[in-house]
Amino acid sequence: MRDRGRIAVFAALAIVAIVLVRTAWVCDDAYITFRTVDNLIHGFGARWNVAERVQSYTHPLWMLVLAAIELVTREPYFTSIVLSLACSLVAVTLLAFRLARSGWQAAIALLVLASAKSFVDFSSSGLDNALSHALIAWYLVVLARPRSAGTTWQPIAIASLLIVNRQDLALLIGPSAIAYLVAHRSERFWRTLALGAAPIVAWELFSLVYYGFLVPNTAFAKMHTGIPEGELFAQGVRYLQESLIHDPLTLTAIAVSIVAGVMGSTPARMVALGQCLYLGYTVWVGGDFMSGRFLTAPLFVGVAQLASMAVALPRPARVGLIAATLVLGLLATSPTLLSDGTFGRGKAYEEFHGVTDERLYYYPRTGLLRSGRAFSPPDLIDADLVQQMLAAGQRIATREMVGMFGFAAGPDLYVVDRFSLGEPLTARLPVTDPWRIGHFQRALPDGLIQTLRTGTNQFTDPGLAAYYDALSLITRGPLLSGRRLRAILAMNLGRDDHLLDAYRAGVREPRPPGAGR
Which H/E stretch holds residue 268? Predict the structure, then answer.
């Protein structure tokens, strides 16, 4: 980089850092992971309720990194924010100095990220996005550098870590990783594959033995809903529509990067294919209730790809790109460049078909620089209610929004999650209507609460009772008993599914809010 370009890059990095600190926050869902981390570091195991082994989080690597650091810090709020900001700064620094082809490309790429509402909102939040961005940047750097005979496994290993961080990112990174394996198939292929795939293989073996399943409980809660695929697809389209309305820069940058990738080299086309697969999957599952959360990874990949391309643009075109970026960023409902400690106060955000601006809602409570409470931990929602329940001897509580409530409850209160992220039985049952994306509520079957209170099976439906016995053996039985291992095999092969047929048949087809009856 020339001196002028280097100055522009450092200025852009400073802007990114300032924006990320000013917007740092933590969402309620992050406290679901925080509760698992708290149970883990206090010796109860990596579980949501200490009574059973259930994976209520979607990001194993993020959970493990948080747990390792919290062993020292012993608190989750500042730990998650500092770790997220560190990961985000690593990601943008690698993009600027190791991926970008020129100083002006690096500076514009950083300006895009600083102005994109989705990227900024989830560069903190307590969720896995920031670590995913850092791993994607590392993967792209290693993928692009010359290979020696002993290092061909490294890009695949980083891709595996990314998948351990969040399994659905396999769609985003898979095409380029597979193309890399094919291109290097003559160079110790099996050694490359074995070393590279070791992280994901190790995690899946642990998950299968410890939790009893290869996917988290959240996958059952959000994928086995009984909602017609057409309705979920329509909701997924609305998710993208909401982004275009409230954060036009994100999808614009993604679309431009896909077009540029398709017109580029074979590696660039593989990256673009991964973006398309991931976006298609996002639409297919109905998107999410958090505006922009599922768009940050394809955005970061796309911006990195654009920055790495050999492009010669005259100065007026560069100025035009900067102007277009600023305009699109400022057209967002909540422009990131204008955010400060008063963000979210007195400002309402209307849901768009169930999709909401989570940072706008939670920042007044959990924002790092929130007005009047800067650099102080947040007051947990309903923490006083938790203490009243425990003081009254209550040991089971039923809740919908379980993040902060569950964390405040600690190990002594069993929290029944109505959205089933941490509830193994109801996660496998159809949702009740009306439903909202990401909030799939189930009716509590007759006998569930009594069973949890007494420890004996009280279900009135015989099939449900038998299924619960098999499931509870997996989640509560002796870890390595032969009977439990056989139950794991049977349930993963679907041999117990028929036990739920009668119950499922009695639940009417769910409909979204406002749908006709």
Answer: helix 266-284
Whether residue 187 contacts residue 174, with contact meaning beta carbons closer than 8 Å, is answered with no
Q: How far apart are CA 238 and CA 244, in angstroms?
A: 10
pLDDT at 515: 47
Name residues whose C-beta falls within 8 Å of residue 189's C-beta, 6 or more positions apart in sequence: 181
Comparing CA positions, the residue from 323, 312, 327 lying closest to residue 105 is 312
Largest CA distance in the chain: 75
The more confident residue out of 400 and 169 is 169
CA distance 449 to 431: 18
Paired with 290 in beta bridges are: 356
Tokens, residue 258: 């896909």
Mean pLDDT, to the nearest integer, of 177-185? 89
Tell whether the torsion through CA atoms of 205, 210, 216 and 220 is positive or negative. Answer: positive
User: Which residue has better confidence, 448 or 314?
Assistant: 448
Supply the Cα-derived Rg of the chain in whole angstroms. 23
For tokens 């990961």, the residue is 87
Give the predicted TM-score (pTM) of the model.
0.94
Instruction: State the Cα–Cα distance between residues 404 and 294, nearest whole angstrom.
Output: 22
d(CA 412, CA 395): 7
Q: Please name the residue ranges forming H helices in 331-447.
A: 358-366, 383-391, 403-409
Nearest to 472 by CA among 454, 457, 461: 457
**Do you know the residue count of the chain?**
517
Helix (H, G, I), strand (E, B) or coil at 125: strand
What pLDDT is attached to residue 350?
Answer: 79
* Cα atoms found within 13 Å of the Cα of residue 442, Cβ hemisphere only: 28
